[in-house]
């Protein structure tokens, strides 16, 4: 029960900060919420990225609620539960730190006509998408805290949705907007983990 309550609190806190508090702070500073939620053609990869991402957030909040309501899950050793708590807490903190690092460049979604500064400092020195990495940590931690079908589905939906969002939506935008600067950054910095998923010259459109 304690693990489920911890998972619920961490996921709820993370969601409220990432999409509520952060948006309010951006609006207060710039009169812009940072939300770029334009419609996507139904059935497109970008559309599926959004559906899976939103679905993952719902499932990860629902997983501990389901556990508290009596949904059975796997029995795991105490060490696994502790590891889940550490991952979940660390992921939540990393989301906050990475969003703060982005400053006025922070956005939810992409506006192809907009140009924001390319952020390469802070946690972005280690990977190009530390917010998504942190959310993956929180999702994995939730699965360890409440190992049931709902948390498992949430983790899978998040991983697939994030891959689609980054590869189909965000990287093409960043390449088109920042050109050579993003090419250099992507060539030396991993996509989600340090050194893993660096883009090579051919993939970046260079000779």
UniProtKB/TrEMBL annotation:
Does this entry carry the keyword Transmembrane? yes
Ordered alphabetically, the record's keywords are:
Membrane, Transmembrane, Transmembrane helix
Q: Where would you find this protein in the cell?
A: Endomembrane system
Any GO CC annotation of this UniProt entry: endomembrane system
Q: Which residues form the signal peptide?
A: none
Q: Which Gene3D superfamilies match?
A: 1.20.120.1630
What is its membrane topology? Multi-pass membrane protein
Protein's UniProt keywords contain Transmembrane helix: yes
Provide the GO MF annotations for this entry: transferase activity
One Pfam match: PEMT
Q: Which residues cross the membrane?
A: 6-27, 47-69, 75-97
InterPro entries, alphabetically? Phopholipid_MeTrfase
Q: Could you tell me what this protein is called?
A: Isoprenylcysteine carboxylmethyltransferase family protein
